[in-house]
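Journal club prep — side note

Before the paper discussion, L.F. wants everyone to see what a predicted structure for a comparable chain looks like in token form. Sequence:
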Amino acid sequence: MDFFTKSPGIGGRIKQHAEDFVVEEIAAEMPPGDEYTVFWLEKINIDANEAIDLLANRLHVSKARFGIAGTKDKRAFTKQRVSVWRIDPERMNNLKFRNMKVYGAEGSAERITLGKLSGNRFKITVRDISLKKEEIEERLSKIFSELEKGIPNYFGPQRFGEIREITHLVGKEMLKGTFQPAVKTYLAMIFEKEQEDAKSARKYLAEHWNKEGFAEALKLFPQRLRYERTVMEYLAKYPNDYAGSLRTLPKRLRKMFLNAVQARIWNRVAKVFAEKGEQMTIPLVGCGDKISDDQMGEEIRKAMEEEEISIESFCMPSMPELRCTGGRRELFLIPKGLGILQIGEDELNSGKLKVAVAFELPPGAYATELVKEIIKSQPLST
């Protein structure tokens, strides 16, 4: 694995507890009004799509009414601002959930959209560290000095799938208009890190890919895999309508598949230019974009050829509601407020130490890319 910083890492791992990964959104200013209600949402071990589903079901309204600035991590404690159209603030403040908290609701004239935030604050606990306290402090001091100069602003593993790295694979098939392999990848591709009951169910489905198989697989797929189950319920009734089965998924989730392909192309191009060490922006390609004739354009074309897609693919003629536009993204990520909050004994790993670090990142940046440089390995909990 390549690292941008040169200082030795501290080792260890993250996310042994959801509370080890704390993300707090730095909210953007919202104009007062009564068209929308904006509120704070705290959640733990729940992804953004599931949270919106829970809110919509409790309020008996469409998920389309809600807006968020970013998806945040699932295995984490997160705090973010959400907007909802035409719901009374007092009604929002009175909602109660087991793993979520809603509060601070107030009126706004505008909806919260993706990227509409000032940044994110992180408090991350790294566990299972074998070094002594003095060595941890010395190494972190050197690493922080390097990080403050900037590291490549790569999209992190959350964008592609941490347990099942399929998000961009599904998206690539969707962009090509080949919906059957997109659905089969989503439902039946097996990854070793997944739980055994899920792997067994996916194996059965892959071997019985027909109407009867969809119905039988529903009996095997764990209830927690509710999006997969929703797709199979549709296929059990309409076994050849793969595009229709994908449309049973929330639009936000379907768009994430396509965004993962954009991110994969961006990462490949950014890696080439990061070696030069110059701050610049890299295009995030989308529908209607024009590719330049310089080295940047050459690298973009090369990355798209490897993915077997074109600019026109992002227009999604076969599913136009998912049309993906482009943009630009800063090549280098510069964190703010890097610091050590605590170094102490790790109660989860006998004889080891833990360290809590804090920092702020701009919108769209991935904390795991920074943590990777700190520990000098892929920052997973296993």
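L.F.'s comment for the group: The mean pLDDT is 95. Keep this in mind when we get to the figures.
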